[in-house]
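Entry 14. Two folds queued back to back today. First construct below, sequence then structure tokens.
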Amino acid sequence: MNKIAGKLEVSRFEIPYRLYGSSDKLMVCIGGAKQTMSAWRSFVSRFQTEYSILVFDLPGQGRAKINYGCMGVSLEEQVDALHELLVRIDAQKYSSRYLVGGSWGSIVAASYLDRYPDLFNRAVLGSFGTRANSVLQVIIDQVQSYIEQGRGAEIAPLMIEKFGQLIPEHLKRQIISQFNDMSEEQYASFYEHSRSVTQMGDLKQHIELSSIAIPVLVVMGQFDTIMDLFDTRKATKMLANGEFQLVKGVGHFLHWEKPELLETYAEFFERTAEESQHCSAN
């Protein structure tokens, strides 16, 4: 398997990335808050023969470094970093380009599509929500309290209890290990991220969803406790060519809980324009 490993210095950040495959079709994957690029391992395994796949750690996540300035990273800074990374790999050279975002990564993806509407052909927004529901707000408050008290290791069990019950045991252990290994700076960055989610309020006020013209598949799990079904459906309807899919039997982590979802994404990426119009109409 062809693999390029690199680091990008952009603004005040150092962004590690991996580019797998040699196809002229590009798939770009954006993870959720504190997820590392390893979260996309199953995507790489499934799609590496058909697509070139870009994975990376956003500023404030994984092994990305904040070289100076505050520990908080704004949505705008994350979008800027993503754009610079796409320039670095010359994303324009690929014959077709697809964007996949999960959880907070879906917000970054939507914001990017709003700002740069002409680069990608299709997008999947997984566990996409534009404002914190009551359950997520309670979790955010507890996370902030844990960090303030130096009890950061308790965050992972809290997250698993509240919205990660359905993921496999080995992935639960991976999340716990990740939080156990986080530095004080990484906890501080996570704290600032949780504050910004609350302060930004309804992200539909910051992202012009109606300006996103490409086909977008919005996916939500039936048992997702931290996304608001009404809000996600409303956001999907604001997209010019949006399609909503509620997946039965899964929660927030989607293909981690139901690997067969990767085939749903594969089918969506390969649809013709006429097929997309039919699905959106329905």
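Second construct, same run, same settings:
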Amino acid sequence: AVELYNLRDDIGERNSLAASNPAMRDELLGDLLAWFKATDARLPTERNSDYVPGSARPAKKKKK
């Protein structure tokens, strides 16, 4: 399902605007699909079996 968020007002991505704004959704999806075609990019079709949720290392603290 295509989702659309206003990150300025909904940084937590809790309220998808895809259904209430189909014109914007379709325009952005068209741009994305055109970019995939132009760059020969591919979406993953299988889960990464090496991925372990929560296993990412914490960000390093910045030096003062």
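Quick look at the second one. The CA atoms of residues 33 and 64 lie 43 Å apart. The longest helix spans residues 22-39.
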